[in-house]
Amino acid sequence: MSVLVLFLAICTWTANAASTGASDGLLFRPDYTLDNEAGGWLKFHPIPLKWSQAALRCHHEGAILASPLNEGLSRALGAIMEVHGITSSPVFTGTGAIYTTNEYQSMEGVPISDMCLTWAAEPPATDTTRYCIAMNANGTVTAVPCTDHHPFFCYRKKGVRELNKCGTVDPEYVFNLKTGSCYKTSKQRLSWEEAYTSCATDGAHLAVINSQQEAEVLNDIRRKIFEKETVHVGIRSWNREWITVQGQSLEEAGYSKWHKGEPNNDGGVENCGSMYENVKDLDDGVLNDVPCDGPRHFICEIESPKEAKDGNTLAKKMWR
Ligand SMILES: [Ca+2]
Ligand SMILES: [Ca+2]
């Protein structure tokens, strides 16, 4: 079977593709926009990534890399590209040679032959390069190497799952009654910057200690999950001024208790904040400055949805 035959599209647009109607009251992340024509929520990511990075990014946001599965979605993607002035470079779709080099399907598992696509140029013959499908501003599609960098859309179909009480679809965020925040502990050790990104991708932030009580809560979590390990928290030194990842001084944030002798900027490279390992009970939750590139476990935080509803600017900021 020739590659071209494989790509012959059968237009199977259905009535429900673009007719999901008005909002049904379900909520998703506030950084996503509900698009009824697309039948779900969309978010445009203007910063180009490789296809695999883009797919992972959407996954971490509780969504999926968007594909032009039907007329409604195609139109919605094209309209957003126009709004963002994307005219010359294509954007990645969620369709590509995901598992083999010659079988093209969307992230949802829809084969490319079931999509109604107009090709800008004949797709390249199958070779050892893995191709992914990118969409042009005029709605046509092109096969490009998956290792190229392109902007992309994340998509979440309406009605898949609702947000939990932490305001996320990620079940690993656990609500804490004492602080009113939700926390998630890391699965792997990362540098401070990677940990920051990991939390941000969740729509969260590296945990910021806002009170003695929160220090104790976080230290209990730390001790239970990571035992005697030091964990990254959301403070960083800018020329020896300590600022939280929400832009506040430690005093403004509500907690500035350092371990005895800290911050000592050991070796002149300790610019990232951590919660000290549990040496003595007395030291519960105290801070230490550590090198940013040292891989450590970390805790992500989402403030309570109530705060977000009250218009708390910090809570809103975390979704950006
Ligand atoms: Ca906090
Ligand atoms: Ca130190």
Structure overview:
With 320 residues, the protein is an alpha+beta fold. The chain folds into two domains: 3-157, Mannose-Binding Protein A, subunit A (Mannose-Binding Protein A, Chain A), CATH 3.10.100; 174-317, Mannose-Binding Protein A, subunit A (Mannose-Binding Protein A, Chain A, Roll), CATH 3.10.100.10. The chain contains eight helices and 16 strands. The radius of gyration is 23 Å and the shape is elongated. Residues 1-25 and 307-320 have low confidence and may be disordered. This is C-type lectin domain-containing protein.
Short description:
Residues 1-17 form the signal peptide. The protein is of the alpha+beta class and 320 residues long. It has 8 helices and 16 strands.
What descriptors fit this protein?
binds calcium ion; disordered N terminus; disordered C terminus; 320 residues; alpha+beta; Mannose-Binding Protein A, Chain A; single chain
* CATH homologous superfamily classification of the largest domain: Mannose-Binding Protein A, subunit A
The proportion of residues forming helix, as a percent range, comes to: 10-25%
Bound molecules: calcium ion
Overall spatial form: elongated
Low-confidence stretches: 1-25, 307-320
| Total beta-strand segments | 16
Radius of gyration: 23 Å
- What structural category arises from helix and sheet content? alpha+beta
- SSE string, helices as H and strands as E: HEEHEHEEEEEEEHEHEEHEEEHH
Main sheet characteristics = 4 strands, antiparallel
Estimated share of beta-strand residues: 15-25%
- Widest sheet, order of strands: 1-2-8-3
Task: Report the CATH topology name of the largest domain.
Answer: Mannose-Binding Protein A, Chain A
